[in-house]
Amino acid sequence: MWSLSEWRRQRILAQHPVAPEAWHEVRQHLSILDGLDDKQDTWLREHSVLFLQDKHLTPMPGVELTEVGRLLLAAQAQLPLLNLGELDWYQGFHEIVLYPDDFVSPQRHRDASGVEHEWEGHHSGEAWEHGPVVLAWPGVLSSGGWEGYNLVIHELAHKLDMLNGAANGMPPLHSSMNVSDWSHAMQAAYDHLNHYLDHHNPDHAPIDPYAAENPAEFFAVISEYFFSAPDLLHQAYPRVYQQLSLFYRQDPLTRLQMLQREHVGYRAQH
């Protein structure tokens, strides 16, 4: 049956082909894509093109945006959506602003006593509800390895979290998922991390201490770890890993373990 949306999709892909050498460079840079099969690779490449046509990238002075750079960003953005179907998961924003370095933005917080605090904060990324995603370009370029850091996935996890309201660490779960199981797993891990940081050196925390900032940041950080350090996340919080695997419908830990079996020393090299 003829479909207007499919016709538009095919038209965009035909008008914006990706050179094989450009996509090869993207794959060489993004180790977290290693182990994907040919079908997944094709999906990721095509949806990277569609993403770049749907979202406007606005480079600030000092950011040199090449075609490979655009694809690097898009491929990282699309990886979490690999098995989530054709729904518009990144609805609600149309622009990604790219800064040449960390940027300053006004912050506001109301404490438990009702006093509102304002200050200037330095950030490498921000995701505004009903607004753009803001990224420091060096953070985009340094993401993509198995290192427990991915600025793109972190900020776009906030956008997934905002699909059902203000970011609170509870994205819209699939109907097959149990809300209670999600809440218990996340709360237990969040409480454990905060307790650890109250009594131990944060340098030895099981995951990035920034995850303890609030439940929204916890979800963004564990999403980073799920795709870029699944072994560390599973070791620290196996129930959290299980819930994220149900949500993203992926199992990057198994993919990483397969790569490690096939290539001795793989984790250390990537």
Short description:
This protein is of the alpha/beta class and 270 residues long.
What's the tally of helices?
12
- CATH architecture classification name: 3-Layer(aba) Sandwich
Reading off the top of the CATH hierarchy, the class is best stated as Alpha Beta
CATH fold type = Collagenase (Catalytic Domain)
Shape, please?
A: globular
Radius of gyration: 19 Å
- Please outline the major beta sheet: 4 strands, mixed
User: What would CATH call the homologous superfamily?
Assistant: Collagenase (Catalytic Domain)
SSE topology string: HHHEHEEEEEHHHHHHHH
Distance between the termini: 44 Å
What is the β-strand count?
6
Strand order of the largest sheet: 1-2-6-5
Give the low-pLDDT segments.
none
Integer tally of domains: 1
How would you describe this structure to a colleague?
There is one protein chain. The protein is of the alpha/beta class and 270 residues long. The chain has one domain (4-269): Collagenase (Catalytic Domain). The protein is 50% helix and 12% strand. It has twelve helices and six strands. The protein has helices spanning 4-15, 20-29, 38-54, 67-78, 137-141, 151-161, 179-199, 215-228, 230-236, 238-248, 252-262, 266-269; strands at residues 56-59, 95-99, 103-110, 116-123, 125-127, 133-136. Strands 1-2-6-5 form a four-stranded mixed β-sheet. Strands 3-4 form a two-stranded antiparallel ribbon. Strand 5 and strand 6 (133-136) form a beta hairpin. Helix 2 packs across helix 4, helix 3 crosses helix 4 and helix 9 (230-236) packs across helix 10. The longest helix has 21 residues, at 179-199.
